[in-house]
Amino acid sequence: MLITNYQKKLIHTIVHSIGMPDEDYRGLLRRWFDVDTCLNLSYRQAEVMIQRLRYIAEKQGRWEHREGSKSKYEDFGEREGFASPKQLRMIEAMWCDVSYQPNQEAKLRALNKFVYGFFHISNMRFLEGWQAKKLIRALQEMKERPATRRRMAI
After folding, report:
1. Where are the domains of the chain?
2. What average pLDDT does this structure show over 46-70?
């Protein structure tokens, strides 16, 4: 049985989250399975590749394995007036791109501090829809224009 579309997507998602250059990714494919593209992997080889990549990403603090098929924040559901689970996941992913924290737990703590400083809300799960949109725009700006120097305290 050949690799599934879900496995291909997951492999590329994890590789992207690690920030692995394409030549390194292809080198791993050659070294581990003697193939040039993930399209040539079997179902079982793809599972092994996913496990290995997850291990690397978890060690770097860039991946959190969740049991079950629910996406993060799905348990909140669509709450009227509040940010959607999709918006919350987007905010968290964008924060991981601009944050300098060493692991996922520290990044989430820093994100909640940022949200508190921005909106005086203790946790981002309490964000309203309009606040989520505003926060997404702010994070886009932060990504486009990284800080070149810190403000000096007076």
Report:
1. 5-59, 74-144
2. 81
